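An example makes the point: we let one protein speak, the chain in one-letter code, the fold tokenised, and here it is:
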Amino acid sequence: MPTIRIVLLFFLLICFSNSIIAETELPTEQEISKTTDEALKYLKESNFEKSLITSRVALQQALIAKNNNLIAISYNIIAANYNEFSEYDKAIFYYKKALFFANKTTDNILKNRINNNLGNMYCFEKKQYEKGIEFYKKSLEYSKKEKDTALVYLININITWAYFDIGDFKKGIPHFKYIKENYNRDISKSTIVVFYMLSGMYYSYMNDHNKANACFLTAIKEGKAGIEKSDLSYSYLEYSKFLTRIGNYKEAYQYLKEYNNINESIYNEEKLKKAERAGFNLELDEYKRQIGRIEIEKDTQYQSLRKSYIIVLLFILTSCIFLILIVTLYKNIIFKKRTNAQLLFTNEELIKAKEQAEEASVLKTQFISTISHELRTPLYGVVGITNMLLEEHKELARSQHLSSLKFSARYLLSLVNDILQINKIEENKVVLESLTFNISDEINMIKNSLSFLSQKNKNHISVIIDSDIPEYLIGDKLRFAQILMNLVSNALKFTKKGEVFIIANLVKVVEKAHYIEFQIKDTGMGIAAVDQDKIFEKFVQVGRKEEDYQGTGLGLTIVKRLLGLFGSSISLESSIGEGTIFTFTIAFDYDPEKTKSIINEIQVDLTSNQMFKVLVVEDNRINQIVTRKIIEKNNYSCTVVDDGYAALEILEKECFDIILMDINMPLMNGFETTRKIRLKDIKTPIVALTAFDKDEITEEAISAGINDIIIKPFESMKLFKIMNCLIVETKNAG
């Protein structure tokens, strides 16, 4: 390789103008610079193993310090090592990495050198001249900015050579004229040889044979006087081409022989270097095999110890120690002791951090559980009393104050449910159910339930369902409805006087699984590209105005997490002012036989002309009023007691068809009250009417003898459906 094409390493480390932040645990710029100096020194000494190891250590330190300048320098040195191995693809890869981080800095000298290195690689190693010349031109721009005349001259020589090499003299001549005008004898011996060789090529192209001949002979004379023989060999070759062109074949042959003799000499030296590199590569391969064995061992241990986070951390750290020991055998025992001490200290810090994280997680779960219960209890009273006022006083139906009260209560309840839902998904407490449902009915029900919101913004909802989708499917319709509800309501909020489309298409069928693609498309305000990656994060609201109601910022987060449970993901297409399209695919099962059996088991008529007696065990006075009103409104007989002891006392005297039991009561809670009722051999069905989340109490409720659970606030239709089912089942069993 000619000297002019040798990779330009960044060996002048830049002095930083900003002062180092005192008392930091991160590696300082001086420490990282010292490491890169060592890596560069090893490279110049052809100690490639140490150069690679040291430059990678410098790279890790620079990444931790987030110093783009030093990251680029480290990548540049790594690339130079691979260039020396003739592994040009790897060299180009790391040079591009270096250029990426260099472009984030204001260091034009660094950008210049890396661009020049890439130009060398593409022009003279990969023979991709157009790409290489583009990098040269970039390098030239930075050289001019820094007024580095030596580099400007050198890069113009490289560009001239590249163009002349491919015979594009017209593009190369402007650069040749520059090097000709700025030529002086102070430049390096190698550069003088190349200058006269390029001059010979230029005059040959211009058909000035005398000048061409003189320039080639000068290049050969200067090359013989110098140490670097590769430039001399290229001068022989180009002169031989010139002599052939003018018909002097005998001399052309003699100079071609000279070219071959020098190349053979260079080739023999290259063979020795390649042999040394091959030996080094064998050592690297051995390191890789040892690392591979350790990785396999690490994976095996990880599977057996995955339940213990602390042990996993220790194992990873121990694996790191093994890797460090493998590639740093030349280090002495003092270095090992210092490294072990640092690792032990880090391990102690990680243990403390893990304990704090676990404690914080427990506290978070307890807080969410407590706050959701404390909020749902009064919300039950607010929603219930609001409904009672609307039913008993029809003249208040148009009252803005009462509508605002009901809306605020439901909004607060929605917020509580969203936060609880996020927490349950994060703790892997959500399990998908298999229910038979009609997908058309579900979508139209969601459309109807959001009619108020669509009318508010003067929007229209259109439903388009593929006729190939089966009428009945099997899957978790509740989670599916929640996904669709969140996406459609979100589209309606951000669309004014427009249209929202709900589109369902069957995309493929694999055995019983029917893959259905859903699109929620609106003609609203759209989402900027810069915000599209953020909208699925918790509590993020894009385009929110202070005077608008935009929700809690949890809806799209819940959508993404629920789709994850279905094994699906969501994509987004949007432009400002052109609307938004959310797309996702869910696989539902289609099993006609199973669907038929489920439908046949559904009890259609759960009503009864008989008046049932209901016992309500509830300590909250407001909730007593609301529950009694709901029950008596449906012609049921209702008796209310304040606590568990009163419930046991009245059950000694009277019989009831069903008991509605609050859980969180003073003196004796709902679980204990139920256990005492069952000990008296009372078979009356008991329904837990509670503000606790269902998943939190299900296990204890079953063990206590509770038949079902309803969460406050609730839909009265759901309450009476469950009550009727339990009463009928109990009477039939009796």
